[in-house]
Amino acid sequence: MERLKLVSLVLALLLASPSASATDVGDLRLAQSSFPSVHAEKLIRQLNLFPKKDVNVVVDRRVSGSLGAKRIVEKRFRFPNLGLESGVSVEDLGHHAGYYKLEHSHDARMFYFFFESRSNKDDPVVIWLTGGPGCSSELAMFYENGPFAIANNMSLVWNEYGWDKASNLLYVDQPVGTGFSFTSDKRDIRHNEDGVSDDLYDFLQAFFAEHPQFAKNDFYITGESYAGHYIPAFAARVHQGNKAKEGIYINLKGFAIGNGLTDPAIQYKAYTDYALDMGIIKKSQYDRINKIVPVCEMAIKLCGTDGTVSCMASYFLCNTIFSSIMALAGDANYYDIRKKCEGSLCYDFSNMEKFLNQKPVRDALGVGEIDFVSCSPTVYQAMLVDWMRNLEVGIPTLLEDGVELLVYAGEYDLICNWLGNSRWVHAMEWSGQKKFVDSPEVSFEVDGSEAGVLKSHGPLSFLKVHDAGHMVPMDQPKASLEMLKRWTQGQLSKTGAETENLVAEM
């Protein structure tokens, strides 16, 4: 009965005038931007991206056939216009690009970059997953924590704070259809975390078979935004595979979620609180928008037990909360509320598309005629039934088995704000919950200044990062590299001076 009521309510919302004010929540009418196709398109345009295709589905199976029958087709490469000292060979550089033939697919290939550590090949292997859902991990590679950034003249500039200075770094274009990853069969487009995490696990098995010298290294899963869904599911899949001795043992030590969406019931409820605290909305508007929250909570609860129609319904209902706030926020950038969006443009990531579509770059990577789909509206919409699922549920088992979790969040992000993230981390039930809740907040210092506030107990840490929005490695590159170093070395709660002294002693 509850499900029927919910479906009826959503149908009423959909039939309401799309031009209705998002603030008119007395009758819960949907804002136009709540529609997934509109929202996906808006997401892409705000980043100044214009992919030629909505999804990387190729018509001709011969395209994948040209890559051969091998599970992994990989090459060492050197990007054009990369400033290097003379005498540095492609082998010395340790940069790889490749395709993995997805084992459990009809005809899919997953594209990835692998950058060997600039410091020590015994450094951890760190995989990065970008969210969206449906955005290429090259966004992070070029604008956040990769080895280099793109200059306006299309040359590459080394990133002083690239995460490859402390790890062997993997970027994967996933789910299928995103970035350079492609298929010739639409049935390979994923709709839930089972499909996503199985693909990633199969990829890792093939990757470590190709690079056995890195299989013994510590392994960490990282990412941001919608990867708050991908990361816990993927970590659980790796842990399951290790326990079942399915293949190569993956030395999983931890997973880190940056400004992620993990537990929607808690995080959507935090939107109005965060917006009020930050002065985005007034108390009267807060009270009005909050009328949607109980209905949203009921919808998410039904999604958790039912899973299809109710999950779609909860997406529409709950996103009315966010779109109502944004209708009042005007031209504020919801990734960083300190900034304004100019017209439809909030960030300019267009150099990524220009650079990756150059023929010398494509030749270096071996991608042939495959399109680069920077962000895919089709993948975004395919994951709608997954959106409101709670991915926190699998985390306690990982914590109990000693797998570490770091949740970090820039303080000025609205869309996956620190308040909602902090609340789900504190509410999570596990054996160390009380001690974590009771633990003191300590200063996270970089170069003698407070870069954030840290709370931790045992394998669980939460870090609120100062002066950062949704993309912490872009806004605070030095602090984010320090965060990665200390976390993977088990020194996150120590000050910079203490860490330096420890390294000196070693």
Automatic annotation (TrEMBL):
Belongs to the peptidase S10 family. Probable carboxypeptidase. One of its GO terms (biological process) is proteolysis. It is an enzyme of class 3 (hydrolase). InterPro entries: AB_hydrolase_fold, Peptidase_S10, Ser_caboxypep_his_AS, Ser_caboxypep_ser_AS. One of its GO terms (cellular component) is vacuole. GO terms for molecular function: serine-type carboxypeptidase activity. It comes from the Eukaryota. Its EC number is 3.4.16.-. It is found in: Secreted. PROSITE patterns: CARBOXYPEPT_SER_HIS (PS00560), CARBOXYPEPT_SER_SER (PS00131). Residues 1-22 form the signal peptide. Keywords: Carboxypeptidase, Disulfide bond, Glycoprotein, Hydrolase, Protease, Secreted, Signal. This is Carboxypeptidase.
